[in-house]
Amino acid sequence: MEEVTRLSMSLPRSLATRFQHYAKERGYANRSEALRDLIRHALVQEEWKDPNAAVAATLTLVYDHHTRTLKDKITAIQHDAGPLVVSTLHVHLDHHNCLEVVVLRGKAKEVQHVADRIAALRGIKHAQLSATTEGKQLV
Ligand code: NI
Fold first, then answer.
1. Distance 91 CA to ligand 1 centre (A)
2. CB–CB of 55/134 below 8 Å?
3. Ligand 1 center to 134 CA (angstroms)
4. Three-state SS across 38-61?
5. How far is the CA of 98 from the centre of ligand 1 (A)?
6. Tens of pLDDT along 35-85?
7. Nearest C-alpha neighbor of 110 from the set 40, 50, 45
8. Interval between CA 50 and ligand 1 midpoint (Å)
9. Is a pLDDT exceeding 80 seen at residue 31?
């Protein structure tokens, strides 16, 4: 396990109080754990600023599968993306609506491009890219 270093910081009392509530409401054992997660989140966002960074992501889609040719277009983009698409999960929500989760992995710019192309298709009701990390640079 990596050595732990201690940081001390100063911040306005009201901010500290709000952060205390934030950590407690989310069930963190202590403020340090909450702060570590916030730092990790910021660092993952930083990773994505490098277009060539190796990242991972999930793209969640909701769409009506009756929309003409939509399913074919989604499939075509995924085929074009090749190894960027690691896996997909499809759930038939009801008679009309499908939910699809696409796991993506590759360069940040390529992952973002695939997500943008699918999200822009007519008939996609909601598309949400969850940008995460391969985890190698986080502890
Ligand atoms: Ni379906």
1. 6
2. yes
3. 29
4. HHHHHHHHHHHHCCCCEEEEEEEE
5. 4
6. 999 999 999 999 999 999 999 999 999 999 999 899 999 999 999 999 999
7. 50
8. 35
9. yes
Ligand 1 centroid distance, CA of 112 (Å): 24
Q: Which residues pair with 59 in a beta bridge?
A: 102, 129
Going from the Cα of 95 to the center of ligand 1, the distance in angstroms, rounded, reads: 8
- Look over the chain and give the mean of its residue pLDDT values, rounded to a whole number: 96
Q: What is the 99 CA–ligand 1 centroid distance (Å)?
A: 7
- Confidence band (pLDDT; 50, 70, 90) for 34? very high
Q: At which residue do the structure tokens 């702060």 appear?
A: 35
Residue type at 57 in one-letter notation: A
Beta pairing partners, 79: none
| pLDDT in the model for residue 48 | 97
Pull the structure tokens for residue 70: 């939509």
Q: What is the pLDDT of residue 19?
A: 97
Q: How far is CA 33 from CA 30, 108, 118, 126, in A?
A: 6, 28, 36, 32
